[in-house]
Amino acid sequence: MDIAQLSDRILNADRRALARAITLVESARADHRAQADELLSSLTTSGRQALRIGMSGTPGVGKSTFIETFGMMLVGKGLRVAVLAVDPSSARSGGSILGDKTRMERLSREPAAFIRPSPSQTHLGGVARRTRDAVALCEAAGYDVVLIETVGVGQSETVVSELSDLFMLLLAPAGGDELQGVKRGIMEIADMILVNKADGDLKSTATRTCADYAGALRLLRKRPQDPEGFPKALTVSAVEATGLDTAWAEIQALAEWRRQSGHWDRNRAAQAQYWFAEEVRQALSARLDTPWAKSRMTELSAEVAEGAQTPQAAARDLLTGLGVANR
Ligand code: GDP
């Protein structure tokens, strides 16, 4: 594959070249990895930056419907939109529920939109790295907005928030005053809560749910990256396309404030550091995944159980064998 040519085509916003490049970065083959690294290095000089929006919500809350309507609205404003997914369930099923072809039918036909399902990988870490590379490729291809979607099941939100400039949580209207079991940690990374389905019979419940969340957000510790009034809770209806303009205006206001105040650049720098540390951690844990390491681990583990070695000594023994520690 001619990497220089592929790189030129991506810089010229060629969607097929972009799709091909993402396939390349998703490949586990060593020669593909080398080509992917060469491609990504050649594209870092593009200097293009998209607004990266992370989005999470439990299945059925309306993520696909929202992305379809919201994406169409952005396209209508003359923006180019890419949609990527981080799907933690792919680790289990080997396939991707977020890759369902029937999702986002209108948006997927738009020339200004690009939709890519989650890569199938055995580890969330592997998916994260490939999604990070895909985000970089979409930026180089000149997309204005990159939406990174994930199903709300805990760990994947952290991964997506480390890939995003801002993070939105999509929620459904809920009866009573219970806060839908949303974990505090997820509330703390949200920049905006959108209560979806604020239409028809659900409208008043949605308004009440939104007020509950607005109250809960006010109780959280003030974060330096927030201007007055953020994080915010808003109601939207993905089906009726209401509230989306307001949500977009708030997103832009927040992004602009962060750009002006320097938080945008600081956040991206901190994310680069996070991914550096993560790469190191993953490379080290991959060393434990070899047949030799596994069988040595089993042997040493038995010795530890018998009291023949202390846990520390056994660990050092294994690490020395792997060449990551000295005697
Ligand atoms: P996802 O699993 O989070 O991607 O959710 P979907 O987008 O597939 O939506 C799940 C269900 O909720 C579908 O039946 C949608 O038609 C419905 N839905 C999505 N958005 C809205 C909305 O704004 N209002 C109403 N009333 N229903 C919605």
From TrEMBL:
Q: Please name the GO terms that the record assigns under molecular function.
A: GTP binding; GTPase activity; kinase activity
Gene Ontology annotations for the cellular component aspect, listed alphabetically: cytoplasm
Q: What InterPro entries has UniProt attached to this entry?
A: GTPase_ArgK, P-loop_NTPase
Task: Enumerate the UniProt keywords alphabetically.
Answer: Kinase, Transferase
Read off the Gene3D superfamilies from this record: 1.10.287.130, 1.20.5.170, P-loop containing nucleotide triphosphate hydrolases
In the record, the note on similarity to other proteins reads: Belongs to the SIMIBI class G3E GTPase family. ArgK/MeaB subfamily.
- Write down what this protein is called: LAO/AO transport system kinase
What species is given as this protein's source? Tritonibacter scottomollicae (Epibacterium scottomollicae)
